[in-house]
Design goal:
Elements: H1 2-6, H2 15-76, E1 86-88, H3 90-98, E2 103-109, H4 116-126, E3 130-134, H5 136-142, E4 151-155, H6 163-172, E5 178-183, H7 188-200, E6 205-209, H8 218-223, E7 233-236, H9 239-248, E8 252-262, E9 272-277, H10 285-290, E10 293-296, H11 308-324
Parallel strand pairs: 2-3, 5-6, 5-9, 6-7, 8-9, 8-10
Antiparallel strand pairs: 1-4, 2-4
Helix pairs in contact: 3-4, 7-11
Length: about 325
Amino acid sequence: MSESLNKPRRHNKPKEDKKDNKGNKREYHTDNKRKYHADKREDYKRESHIDNKDNKRASHADKREYHRNNKRNWQEQDNPQDIGNIIYGRHSVLEALKANRTIDKILVQQGETEGSIKKIIGDAKKSGILVQEVDKVKLDTISNYDKHQGVVAYVAAHMYYEIDDMLNDAQAKQEDPFLIILDNIQDPHNLGAIIRTAHACGAHGVIIPKHRAVGLTAVVSKASAGALEHIKIAKVTNIAQTVELLKTKNIWIACADMDGEVIFKENLKGPIGVIIGNEGEGISKNVKSKADFIISIPMHGKVASLNASVAAAIMCYEVVRQRAY
């Protein structure tokens, strides 16, 4: 009995303490779990955000590349509405060249440079006709999957004239020459509308460039409302050089640009050529530098420019007003 009394007493924690401990442990584990899952969510969000940013960046880069390619393709592609202005097949194109048919350009299949294709390329270059190499898919599309034999030619909807023909026409009518010079107009509807205006205001001809501009297609003919049949169109290799040539023939050159003198203050009487720029970029610096003077149309609205065909109409009729009224 004495031994049992002498044994040290166990200091067991009261039941309430055990309960408290269990509660503390539970809270500790719960807090840890919450923190763990919160961290995981944060990591997931961070990774998703980074991925999203990368994806967005890649998406924007892809869009930029897509639009860049589309713009390049749009500049090089052929208008599907011009399908009535094509001939294809080696024999057909060769005969068109022999007959001196007016051809805007010839497309040949990449890698096809032998035999009759070689002759077509040679004859075209001698005649100053633009030749482009394209893939077979493009030729298939243009020819509506008919047998094109690796060559397609775009023929003009109307014959082209020389600049001298226009000047001779003015001389025969005993009038001062009045010419419209277009710098890289690419929209066929704009070209057709300008031709219609040029004819209506009595211009003796319209001058267009061979490259980077629309030619005389069926769409242009339709947009001109028949005026294409009654006015002379010349197609030249270099607009800047043509301007210099006209100046040697005592023709004054007026260039339409926003930085110029207001059109109503300038003297537009006498022999004159009016230059109109393309829809997006206006007149090139090289061509602008050749002009005798620069004229502008006053703008009072928030939109800073006019459609090319509208600007051409205003310019042309100011010439008519000063000459006749």
